[in-house]
Design brief:
278 residues; mainly alpha; 12 helices
Length: 278
């Protein structure tokens, strides 16, 4: 395929991901990394760092939309910020260590495991909503004691996942806010983006320090980085506002399942090829 067409296709997929994932409380990293690895054929370190940069811009746009609608539970999001920041640093350091010693297959295997878990939880949640037995609440519970410990541990795990896989950790944060705290979809999404806005920059900075991908990003994207990120952030805001006002969450859940499945299949193809050659 012509290089220019590949770049255009990649940009379109990135914008579609931002529009579709923002209302779901996700940054889209699970698709950005495969786009960079398989479509643009970027180095793993460049793919992880740029994915996080895009996730952050999606978080900024979607956070604005959810906050305007009164869906972000700030007091709860703040309680998970510190452990998520710590986890992001640890996850980034682990990614650098594993890639240096075992190659990028460690990232692909880990991402595949996460995607399988996400598909299971998403289908289970969707089934509960379709049958009207999902556990939701209008007001956030008091996050203290054992619940506080569980919430912070989950936020730490989300941070580790973010730094290690180059994603925003939104899948884990959404599960925490929905399953553990019983939030509604938009409420959980708005609170998730509170965590990501502070956590993702920490993962980005750590990646830049550890793998030194800053010059490569500048060489690859140049001044295009500014308009790209502005458009992605605006697209995320538009997606979140459109969903909040017009679309039931299930409408976006189905294409999300398809997109995640496609990423999983592509990772599994790589894993199979490695297993067949050993």
């Amino acid at each position: 395929m012509n290089l220019e067409l590949v770049v255009i296709l990649a940009i379109l997929l990135i914008l579609m991901t931002a529009f579709m994932f923002a209302p779901l409380g996700l940054g889209g990293g699970v698709l950005y990394v495969p786009i960079f690895l398989y479509l643009l054929e970027w180095d793993i370190h460049l793919a992880l760092t740029c994915s996080l940069l895009l996730v952050w811009t999606v978080s900024l746009g979607s956070r604005t939309a959810h906050a305007k609608g009164g869906y972000a539970v700030v007091e709860i999001g703040r309680k998970g910020t510190a452990p998520s920041l710590t986890g992001a640093i640890l996850g980034t350091l682990l990614a650098a260590l594993f890639i240096a010693r075992l190659g990028d297959m460690t990232i692909k295997v880990s991402a595949s495991a996460l995607l399988l878990w996400v598909l299971y939880k998403t289908v289970k949640q969707l089934n509960s909503e379709l049958h009207g037995d999902a556990s939701i609440t209008e007001d956030p519970p008091a996050v203290e004691g054992r619940l506080m410990t569980q919430y912070r541990a989950g936020c730490f795990g989300g941070g580790v996942t973010s730094g290690f896989l180059g994603i925003g950790g939104g899948m884990i944060f959404m599960m925490l806010h929905r399953s553990l705290l019983g939030f509604r979809q938009h409420q959980a999404a708005g609170t998730t983006f509170i965590l990501e806005i502070w956590m993702v920059p920490m993962a980005i900075i750590t990646h830049l320090i550890v793998n030194g991908s800053g010059p490569t990003i500048i060489d690859t994207l140049g001044f295009n980085i500014i308009p790209i990120f502005l458009v992605v952030s605006g697209t995320a805001w538009l997606g979140a506002r459109t969903a909040i006002k017009l679309l039931p969450q299930r409408v976006l859940t189905y294409p999300f399942i398809i997109a995640v499945t496609a990423s999983l299949i592509r990772y599994m193809i790589d894993i199979r090829e490695v297993l067949m050659t050993t």
